[in-house]
């Protein structure tokens, strides 16, 4: 069963990273920085999630325009990745994060993926996402 959630999803190396946080938390801005460094946009603002064979998948909801909100500029067209991407990690965007956190996971239906808390305003935020994604096992 598919469900649409508020978030932004990008793909790196064939795996998805889901960015979660309230409106104005920096999801689209962090996605823009990652896109500038070679990531692909899966969906901005709304992400459709499904689980197949225990694997969490993300895609753009049907009819969602291929746009990325760039604060101070407006909605810009992008070339999104087509189809679903298996999620490898979820990043909850918040201004403060622990130095050495206890590993956490994010659950949807019967699937879980690693959860990381990330300050999107940190100069290294995009590098941190890329580092996590580079070390994550590529979902089958």
Number of helices: 2
Contiguous uncertain segments of 5+ residues: none
Gross morphology: globular
Structural class: alpha+beta
Strand content: 35-45%
- The whole-angstrom Rg is 14 Å
Q: What would CATH call the class?
A: Alpha Beta
CATH-defined architecture: 3-Layer(aba) Sandwich
Give the end-to-end Cα distance, rounded to a whole number of Å.
Answer: 20 Å
- Estimate the mean pLDDT confidence: 90
Number of domains: 1
User: Would you tell me which CATH topology applies?
Assistant: Rossmann fold
CATH H level, superfamily name:
P-loop containing nucleotide triphosphate hydrolases
For the biggest sheet, the summary is:
9 strands, mixed
Say how many strands there are: 11
Report the helical percentage: 10-25%
Q: Could you spell the SSE succession in H and E letters?
A: EEEHEEEEEEEEH
């Amino acid at each position: 069963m598919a469900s649409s959630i508020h978030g932004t999803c990008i793909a790196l190396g064939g795996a998805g990273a889901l960015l979660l946080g309230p409106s104005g938390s920096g999801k689209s801005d962090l996605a823009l920085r990652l896109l500038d460094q070679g990531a692909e946009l899966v969906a901005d603002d709304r992400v459709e999630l499904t689980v197949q064979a225990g694997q969490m998948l993300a895609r753009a909801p049907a009819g969602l325009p291929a746009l990325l909100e760039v604060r101070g500029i407006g909605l810009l067209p992008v070339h999104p990745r087509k189809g679903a991407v298996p999620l490898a990690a979820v990043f909850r965007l918040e201004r403060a994060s622990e130095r050495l956190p206890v590993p956490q996971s994010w659950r949807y239906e019967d699937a879980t993926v690693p959860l990381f808390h990330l300050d999107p305003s940190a100069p290294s935020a995009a590098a941190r996402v890329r580092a996590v994604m580079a070390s994550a096992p590529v979902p089958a």
